[in-house]
Amino acid sequence: MFKIFKKKDNKNKDNNESLAENSALEQARSENQVTQAPKVVSVAGKKLDVQLEKSRQGFGKKVKNLFSVNKTIDDDLFEDIETTLLMADVGAKATVDIVEKTSQSVKRNNLGNTQEVYYALMNHMLDLAQTVENPLVVDTTKQPYVILVVGVNGVGKTTTIAKIARKFKQEGKSVMLAAGDTFRAAAVEQLKTWGEREDIPVVAQSTGSDSASVIYDAMSSAKSRNIDILIADTAGRLHTQSNLMQELGKISRVMKKNDETAPHETLIVVDGGTGQNAISQIKEFNNTTKLSGIAITKLDGTAKGGVLFNLAKEFGIPVRFIGVGEKSTDLKTFVAKDFVEALLG
Ligand SMILES: Nc1nc2c(ncn2[C@@H]2O[C@H](COP(=O)(O)OP(=O)(O)O)[C@@H](O)[C@H]2O)c(=O)[nH]1
Ligand SMILES: [Mg+2]
Q1: Which atom of ligand 1 is closest in space to residue 152's alpha carbon?
Q2: What domains are there in the chain, each with its CATH number?
Q3: pLDDT one-digit tens code per residue, 258-290
Q4: Which one of the ligands is nearest to 322 CA?
Q5: Which of 13, 15, 232, 333 is 20 to 30 A removed from 256 (C-alpha atoms)?
Q6: Residue to probe by mutation, ligand 1, list 159, 277, 296, most atoms within 8 Å of CB
Q7: pLDDT tens per residue, range 14-65
Q8: Model-level pTM?
Q9: Is 155 in the pocket of ligand 1 (CB under 6 A)?
Q10: Helix and strand counts by DSSP (H, E) for the chain
């Protein structure tokens, strides 16, 4: 295991001056915050605990166990924190960031109590998670507001679409789905089944038809029926499938013929259990089509749960939703405090 803490810690010593350059406001904010548990008061939190049970028992407990009362606050402790974060898919950059800031808090505040170090760690993880907390707000001047959903195969695109559609419908908005995955035989049927179950109209053509034209037709149909939100499914694709990646470009271009401001949201869906793969998927798709939001699925199925910090540090693209189960109700708007509390609290 490489020793990020030690390496970076030496650098910190060199950088004491730049530390002092932090604005007074920033310092006051962090001084006051880091030594106490993050204030988490949330109705959603309770349920999320249960849905994130695997990560809570895996990642969360491992972190907590590092801070037993008789533990000394030394390099070994920071190395253990670093290893635990890396093992939980937090990724090297985010791990360095979190561990470095925690170590700075320890020095600056002269922390001698492991519980305070634990809170400092939690607060720095929360800070990072908050950088990508930016819920999807539907611009009601767009009619319809178009959400294009992309990602590789099997990550949960179609399921997430059904969940999001249900959520909007419950908020009183009218929703329509476009079956833009015309590639896989069962894909259209899968979306139609969700539509029937949630009582949401689905615009579809047969398998093999042109995805861009299905979505274009759905936009026209949504417009004429005064639908608020149109969510377009697409076929799963890998960056190596250049024809399919080009198709994404075509979908966007054809959409713009209907509404030059569309798509209003391009949401990539990634499987929260796939670690570094999720990072490379976002990188590849972002090269082809400008992503505006991320949905992380299957967080109920992983004992790691740290990928969110990794992609927060790597991209800063808003995490709109997290998927925490297979049912249409198993979707949460991403709220950093709820998430960090459910994971580590
Ligand atoms: N446990 C769990 N399973 C999920 C979640 N989201 C999707 N799935 C499952 O993942 C599988 C693939 O989902 P699907 O929506 O067809 O993926 P797509 O190929 O990206 O459209 C299905 O069995 C879903 O039930 C989630 O948040 N948690
Ligand atoms: Mg699908």
Answers
A1: 20
A2: 4-130 (1.20.120.140), 145-344 (3.40.50.300)
A3: 999 999 999 999 999 999 999 999 999 999 899
A4: 1
A5: 333
A6: 159
A7: 333 333 333 433 443 455 566 666 654 444 434 898 999 999 999 999 999 9
A8: 0.89
A9: yes
A10: 16, 8
